[in-house]
Amino acid sequence: xxxxxxxxxxxxxxxxxxxxxxxxxxxxxxxxxxxxxxxxxxxxxxxxxxxxxxxxxxxxxxxxxxxxxxxxxxxxxxxxxxxxxxxxxxxxxxxxxxxxxxxxxxxxxxxxxxxxxxxxxxxxxxxxxxxxxxxxxxxxxxxxxxxxxxxxxxxxxxxxxxxxxxxxxxxxxxxxxxxxxxxxxxxxxxxxxxxxxxxxxxxxxxxxxxxxxxxxxxxxxxxxxxxxxxxxxxxxxxxxxxxxxxxxxxxxxxxxxxxxxxxxxxxxxxxxxxxxxxxxxxxxxxxxxxxxxxxxxxxxxxxxxxxxxxxxxxxxxxxxxxxxxxxxxxxxxxxxxxxxxxxx
Length: 344
Prior knowledge:
The protein is an all-alpha fold.
């Protein structure tokens, strides 16, 4: 891989991370509008609509030959069962957490996910711990979350409990997705397997909890403004899932969790001025500041590591080429000496 290939890969990964960040920030506020402004507090039903719509769109694109997508098989579905299960659990827990806390603190709490992902990656991906700078940046992110959470005067035990469990399930499915996408499965295939596997799980959950009946009886389904927001949430949810799998396949599960620095910062700052905001005190401000510092450090660290890997790759190639040239020179000199000896 040459320097242009390395730069192109870095640019694609950065673009995917930004795309995921924009989609994630947008979804947090759209879901909050749907659940708070319209009182549509049915997170599982929202996910059922998202999964069902995604399946329809994927197979429509396949029928029109816009994408190359193989048919769903039970074998592939079985292999992707665990990621789909943890994805469904994370989605439900995240929406429950968001419905019981403000957007600003929800964004800060989700910044604990990188530390969970970092620890679990050692066991799931069978790799060693990252560099000291990476560990420091993740430590700052997590510390900032704890301090900022301490300053949240509107503390909700259920909201924080669901948010914490959401971080664990998010780390598990992202790491499992990374392990699968390191093979031959592309982003559309990953999205297909995840949606087809998740749809029946979420549908059963909606029926068992009775949420499906409550959602069906919702009185504002004929209201145009509600339908617009609802359809926007469903479509943006599809883009969010695609951008998530794309970012994970082009970068890593850990990068997807922290893809954010800018995402978390924007989400928190906007949340402070909307949806009743967040209590303003020293711990909240210090926590958010540590989040920002940790995020910036992580981005810088990843860039430095990427450059070092690129330089090492070029040095190995140069060393290899030099060794070959030296061997050729030695062989030529040996041939010349043999020819002179024969003439003598």
